[in-house]
Amino acid sequence: MTDVSRLPGPFEHEWDWQEQAACRDADSRIFFHPSGERGTAHRAREAEAQRICSRCPVQLACRRYALAARESYGVWGGLTEEDRQRQVRSRRRARSRAQQADRSAS
């Protein structure tokens, strides 16, 4: 069964930022890669998605959602899959260093 504990609750106000999203009427294929997409086509599609995100009024809300929900696929809030993975790893390392520092101080 899928773990949905990281997702916002079933309340409309948790999701209403999506109503304002610049991507709302865009083709979702811009944001999610087809199977086997590589190289120049992959980079061009992601760049187009990021251009749309760059002018989006809810870009930060979208980004926060994608990081909290650990969205695995697509461009969310201007971040690619790889961007989000790097941020998650960076946050984990920072938490780990902080915990080690706390243990050392004790």
Structural topology:
Layout: H1 12-15, H2 39-54, H3 59-69, H4 81-105
Your description of this structure?
This protein is an all-alpha fold and 106 residues long. The protein has one domain. 53% of the residues lie in helices and 0% in strands. The longest helix is centred in the last third of the chain and has 25 residues, at 81-105. The N and C termini lie far apart (40 Å). The model has no long low-confidence stretch (mean pLDDT 88).
Quick gist of this model?
The chain has 106 residues and is mainly α. Helices cover 53% and strands 0% of the residues.
List keywords for this structure.
106 residues
**Global mean pLDDT:** 88
Total strands: the figure is 0
Q: What class, by secondary structure content?
A: mainly alpha
- Total number of domains: 1
Strand content: under 5%
Shape: globular
